[in-house]
Amino acid sequence: MTAAQLAREIMNLRGSLIDAPLEKLLLDDLSTRAFDLYHRLELATVYPSQQEIAALVRTVSVGLDIPPPTGSGLKIYFKTLAEVPLTVLMAAAERLVKTHRYPTFPKPVEWLGSASADQDEIEKARFTMQIYERRLKMARLYYGPRKG
After folding, report:
1. How far is CA 135 from CA 23, 81, 93, 97, in A?
2. Cys staple from 1: which of 5, 27, 40, 76, with CB 3.0 to 4.6 Å?
3. HSE value, Cβ hemisphere, 13 Å, CA-based, for 82
4. How many CB atoms are located within 10 Å of the residue 87 CB?
């Protein structure tokens, strides 16, 4: 599964993780599934090397039949796209090949724009899990088994 797909899975659980009453968090006990998805999301969020970025630039170049950037122009792509997870960048490259309509090679901002929806989903999933961790801690504190 890609990072974006894992993020969507976490967001599908959002109602049960965030919107449910605290006592229901302990009854439903989705923590194993949620934390497994979150762990897999973190593992899937691998950032690309320069060689991987160069390969994707070449793929888009061939797909669009447009010469790729070279020299210092290519270094800008390396620096800008290195902050996008590899699976997200691969999906963005595929979308660019399908949708780019201009006779020039897509600028880095176009790559980032193509990747933004997936990146937003990943960030929302991370934020959801941070909130869930705090809510689960509160639920265990108030509704968990009593000692003593």
Report:
1. 10, 35, 38, 42
2. 5
3. 10
4. 20
Contacts with 21 (C-beta within 8 Å, 6 or more apart), sequence order? none
Q: How many CB atoms lie within 10 A of CB 34?
A: 21
In this predicted structure, the answer to whether residue 37 has a pLDDT above a threshold of 80 is: yes
Domain boundaries, the chain: 3-143
Q: Considering only CA atoms, which of 129, 103, 146, 96 is closest in space to residue 7?
A: 129
Q: Letter for the amino acid at 67?
A: P
Spell out the residues 6+ positions from residue 53 whose beta carbon is closer than 8 angstroms to its own: 77, 78, 81, 82, 89
pTM: 0.80
Question: In the block, which residue shows the tokens 């923590």?
Answer: 31
